[in-house]
Structure formats: C-alpha cells, structure tokens
Amino acid sequence: MIKPEIVEAKQVGEIITQIEQNGFTIRALELVQLEIEDAEEFYAVHQDRPFYKDLCTYMSSGPVVAMVLEKDNAVAEFRKFIGATNPAEANEGTIRKQFGKSIEENAIHGSDADETALEEIEFFFPGMLE
Ligand SMILES: Nc1ncnc2c1ncn2[C@@H]1O[C@H](COP(=O)(O)OP(=O)(O)OP(=O)(O)O)[C@@H](O)[C@H]1O
C-alpha cells in the first residue's frame, strides 16, 4: 500500500516504476480513500500502541494505492525492497529511504507474513482469492 503523502506528492508513478523494475508483477491495483474506521480495522493489531490514533488519522487523510504484487518469496523480498519502518534507519536505495519523511509517514506498507498478505488482499480486494 502506497501511503497518502505519496499520492499527495505525485510520487506514485516513481514508486510503481521501481516496484516493477525490482521484479514484482502487479496483479491488482486500486486508489482507495480509507475512512478512519477502515484504517482502524486495517491496523487493529496496533490498537494498544501509543501511535495508533495518529496512524489511523494519517492513513485516512487522503487516498492510498493498494496493490497485490506477485514474486517468488514476495513478502520477504518486498520488505527488503521497502526498508526499515523508520526511514532514517532504512538502507540506501530502499523506498522508505528515498521517499519516507518520518517513522509514521514512511511512504509504503508491506504485508509482514504470507497469512497477513492474504487477509490484506481480502481487505482491499474482497473475493479476489476465491
Ligand atoms: N513509533 C512510531 N511512531 C509513529 N508511527 C509509527 C511508529 N511505529 C510504526 N508507526 C507507523 O505504523 C505503521 C505500522 O507499524 P509496523 O510496526 O507494523 O511497521 P512496518 O511493519 O514496518 O510497517 P507497515 O506495517 O506499514 O509495513 C508504520 O509503517 C508507521 O507508519
């Protein structure tokens, strides 16, 4: 998921170019405006964290780009490609290093496990996996 500040900054194309150049195949793509309740559901795993409320406000502040990407070992490969949560700690050349502004506004989200990816695909593209 490409986060709202990137859509606002018109950097979606640059990031999608890098996604494709790094061997990921786009299987689904949609521009979506999350309501705050949607962001709360998507990030429910973080509901007890101090940043949860701010995170949900931010993630519903403008449209995001949701994508289903395919590659061998996609989850791990994508996490390596996007870099550490905090852009300041992300490796050179990663998406978060290049485009992230802060630990919160870090440009992009990637599923953290195959099982989470299935849930997140169902969240954005209901029925796609049936
Ligand atoms: N300490 C923090 N302060 C503010 N926001 C944070 C903090 N830690 C994480 N976040 C925000 O919450 C999101 C989810 O945090 P998580 O720990 O799952 O990181 P991640 O797995 O690297 O990111 P994502 O799940 O978005 O791919 C982060 O991407 C970031 O936007």
TrEMBL record:
<feature type="binding site">
    <location>
        <position position="79"/>
    </location>
    <ligand>
        <name>ATP</name>
    </ligand>
</feature>
<comment type="similarity">
    <text>Belongs to the NDK family.</text>
</comment>
<feature type="binding site">
    <location>
        <position position="96"/>
    </location>
    <ligand>
        <name>ATP</name>
    </ligand>
</feature>
<keyword id="KW-0460">Magnesium</keyword>
<keyword id="KW-0546">Nucleotide metabolism</keyword>
<keyword id="KW-0067">ATP-binding</keyword>
<feature type="binding site">
    <location>
        <position position="3"/>
    </location>
    <ligand>
        <name>ATP</name>
    </ligand>
</feature>
<keyword id="KW-0808">Transferase</keyword>
<dbReference type="InterPro" id="IPR036850">
    <property type="entry name" value="NDK-like_dom_sf"/>
</dbReference>
<dbReference type="GO" id="GO:0006183">
    <property type="term" value="P:GTP biosynthetic process"/>
</dbReference>
<dbReference type="GO" id="GO:0005524">
    <property type="term" value="F:ATP binding"/>
</dbReference>
<dbReference type="GO" id="GO:0004550">
    <property type="term" value="F:nucleoside diphosphate kinase activity"/>
</dbReference>
<feature type="binding site">
    <location>
        <position position="51"/>
    </location>
    <ligand>
        <name>ATP</name>
    </ligand>
</feature>
<feature type="active site" description="Pros-phosphohistidine intermediate">
    <location>
        <position position="109"/>
    </location>
</feature>
<protein>
    <recommendedName>
        <fullName>nucleoside-diphosphate kinase</fullName>
        <ecNumber>2.7.4.6</ecNumber>
    </recommendedName>
</protein>
<dbReference type="GO" id="GO:0006241">
    <property type="term" value="P:CTP biosynthetic process"/>
</dbReference>
<dbReference type="GO" id="GO:0046872">
    <property type="term" value="F:metal ion binding"/>
</dbReference>
<keyword id="KW-0547">Nucleotide-binding</keyword>
<keyword id="KW-0418">Kinase</keyword>
<feature type="binding site">
    <location>
        <position position="85"/>
    </location>
    <ligand>
        <name>ATP</name>
    </ligand>
</feature>
<dbReference type="Pfam" id="PF00334">
    <property type="entry name" value="NDK"/>
</dbReference>
<dbReference type="InterPro" id="IPR034907">
    <property type="entry name" value="NDK-like_dom"/>
</dbReference>
<feature type="binding site">
    <location>
        <position position="106"/>
    </location>
    <ligand>
        <name>ATP</name>
    </ligand>
</feature>
<keyword id="KW-0479">Metal-binding</keyword>
<keyword id="KW-0597">Phosphoprotein</keyword>
<feature type="domain" description="Nucleoside diphosphate kinase-like">
    <location>
        <begin position="1"/>
        <end position="130"/>
    </location>
</feature>
<dbReference type="GO" id="GO:0006228">
    <property type="term" value="P:UTP biosynthetic process"/>
</dbReference>
<dbReference type="InterPro" id="IPR001564">
    <property type="entry name" value="Nucleoside_diP_kinase"/>
</dbReference>
